[in-house]
Amino acid sequence: MPAMLCRLLAVTVLLALAPLALAQEKAFTNRATELKDKAAADAKTVASLPPDTEVKVLGRGGQWTQVEAQSQRGWVRVFHLRFPSTVQESSSGGGALGGLTSALGFGRQTSRTSTVATTGIRGLTPEDFANASPDPEALRRLQGYRSDRPAAERFAREAKLAAQQIDYSEGRR
User: Fold this and answer.
1) Do residues 74 and 99 share a domain?
2) What's the longest Cα–Cα distance across the chain?
């Protein structure tokens, strides 16, 4: 079988299995949150989920994650979830012999589960601005995500957010 055909077959299999892998991922609510019928803050609430509710991830879209919880399907904010990760550790005593048995796969393996939440934020450099080029279509799409003041205030109220005044000094900008 030619190499190109093998690669194409491998990619096809991976794409076909990707939804199954995603569907098996579980997460937990990290706070009380609402299960919405659509991925929108003003969507109808299907159920209220208490903290530490186990959910099954069905899909992702922007700041929303589609889940199944308590026999119901809906959307929750991605920041209201935490995802467990399993770490495998191998241990075997015995000095050099222990290292050899571990390398050959004969060491005792233990698994522990921890919960991880990660968020990445990247700043813009002066080079990013210098090399930027206008994209009117991207701007139009982004404007579709903007929120008016009443919607933002409603979101803050529902999320129990409080206003804070932060004074920035010139040296810290």
Assistant:
1) no
2) 68
What b/e sequence results for 45-84 when a residue is b if at least 16 CB atoms lie within 10 Å of its CB, and e otherwise? ebeebeeebebebbeeeeebbbbebeeeebbbbbebbbee
**Of 73, 105, 58, 110, which is closest to residue 88 (Cα–Cα)?**
110
What domain count does the chain have? 2
Same domain, 91 and 45: no
What confidence score (pLDDT) does residue 114 get? 54
Rounded to an integer, the average pLDDT of 4-29 is: 59
Cβ proximity of 75 and 43 under 8 Å: yes
Beta strands in 2-154 (DSSP E): 26-29, 33-36, 45-49, 54-61, 64-69, 72-77, 81-91, 108-116
> What mean pLDDT is predicted for residues 153-157?
89
**How high is the pLDDT of residue 7?**
59
What does the block give as tokens for 169?
């000094």
Task: Give the pLDDT band (50/70/90) at residue 47.
Answer: very high
> Residue 22: which residues within 8 A CB-CB, separation 6 or more?
57, 58, 59, 60
pLDDT of residue 38: 92
Look up the domain containing 36 and give its range.
23-83
